[in-house]
Amino acid sequence: MMKNIVLIGFMGTGKTSTGKMLAARLGRAFLDMDQQIEKKAGKSIPAIFAEDGEAAFRAAEYELAKSLSEKRGLIISTGGGTMKREENRALLKKSGIIVCLTADAETILTRTSARGKRPVLDRAENRKAEIERLLGERAEIYAHADYTVDTSELSPLQVVEDIVKHIKKYG
Ligand code: S3P
Questions:
Q1: Is 81 close to ligand 1, i.e. is its CB under 6 Å away?
Q2: Rg from Cα positions in the chain
Q3: I need a labelling partner for 154 at 20 to 30 A (CA). Which of 21, 51, 82, 161 fits?
Q4: Given a cut of 70, is residue 164 above it in pLDDT?
Q5: What separation in Å is there between the alpha carbon of 65 and the centre of ligand 1?
Q6: Per residue in 3-28, pLDDT tens?
């Protein structure tokens, strides 16, 4: 069976838009973990954080990672914090190739400027400082990828072509 391609990386690195286009390009099914969690909960991620707490969201993320680890052939976009949990890293790694999307703090700040969408950033007093702090804190977990693409200067289409080229080399 074909491996999954799992997109990981910080908020605003383009996991969802790239994932959708990559799936279309390769003729594979696309699954966005955040969207799946929202669908199951019947509410948005900010609402889950506000009403049920971050721990409830992380638990839902773990349950989903478990079920996705049994699937193959999918293009999966994770949430920016999915890989924080060691079990999630192991589960997703077992299912496929891990591709990390990165971007510099300034680019991430611009791409995540909309309020009310990212509770992890909305609760910070200084958004830029919080992005930099979290990038430092999470650098280690994103380093678990098989392949990394810096998306700061690239369009999603260019990112897709880069990934496709790399995956072909993989065989
Ligand atoms: C989070 C990132 C979000 C979403 C949730 C928590 C994080 O996903 O899962 O708000 O902890 O980095 P995106 O990376 O798709 O924004």
A1: yes
A2: 15
A3: 82
A4: yes
A5: 14
A6: 999 999 999 999 999 999 999 999 99
